[in-house]
Amino acid sequence: MQMVIHNSSDKREELRKKMIENAAEINRLHHRIHETCKRRDESEDLHQEWSQACAEFHAHYAELCLPGGLNPDFYDRLRAGDPDMIEVALCFLEVRPYFFRSGYHWKTILQKCKSAPMSGEQFERFRDLLEKYKQWRNLRKKSSERGAAIAHELWPLLRRFHHVFPVRIPDHRYDGLVTVGDLYRILCDVLKVEPVAEPDASRGQIHTPCRAVAGTDMIAWSKEYGAWRRAVWSADDIWATLESLIREVYGLDPSFHVSVVTVLCKSAR
Which long-range contacts (CB under 8 A, 24 or more apart) does 122-130 make? Predict the structure, then answer.
């Protein structure tokens, strides 16, 4: 798709706004896949609804990634120093929209821009972007190092997460963790669930670990693993499951009250 962009501030803001809107639409389509996936095995109609959600997502993804569409022509024009395509690339790097695989696209565009000929104002903007990215990477590295130390301290508990919570939590997310409430909010965030203000006053369902292991019947393994991955989590369920694991791992007396202010990691203070 051919696109001409005039590098005025108004056009630039319009381009950035469009990227944010497109990211929201990608997220909506992607969320619909996950929602329909949970019930796709209940009936043929529900399976068809999930299939249609997948088809719609894949049909619109490329055109929503970037204004004008993400295609080989974009990268060819970018490498050739096309000012319009460089403007699209710079706006994408500056806005850093969040959607499925946006991080991959961001890094790819950044690398392509390094070899793209630029001049004037666009070169200055890209130089500033590189400097900010370097600073961000240094901060992230330090955060990951601090988080890794906390994860090591909490390993008896966190090692149980692998078969209970269907997520992977990077080390930097543990940076600054002190209380059970901190860990609860991290889990809610990665599971995309809104946390409740007073989870210790709620009554949720305790989710059981995924017991499927290699060497068992593959059909049974596939069904159990699939059900575990598709399990619906509420904020109350996350708290109930987390509290149950903490009690089990640390051998707490039933009379001990686990709350959001219960200290897990003293070294992070």
Answer: 122/7, 122/83, 122/86, 122/87, 122/90, 125/90, 125/94, 126/90, 126/93, 129/90, 129/93, 129/94
DSSP code of residue 191:
T
Neighbouring-strand partners of residue 263: 179
pLDDT tier, 181 (very low <50, low <70, confident <90, very high otherwise): very high
pLDDT digits (tens, 9 = 90+) for 95-122: 999 999 999 999 999 999 999 999 899 9
What tokens appear for 38 in the block?
């949970």
Domain residue spans of the chain: 9-118, 155-268
Count the helices and strands in the chain (H runs, E runs). Answer: 10, 0
Written as six digits, the tokens of 9 are 């501030």
Q: Which one, of 202, 161, 207, lies nearest residue 183 by Cα?
A: 161
Angle at 224 between CA 221 and CA 228, to 5 degrees: 135
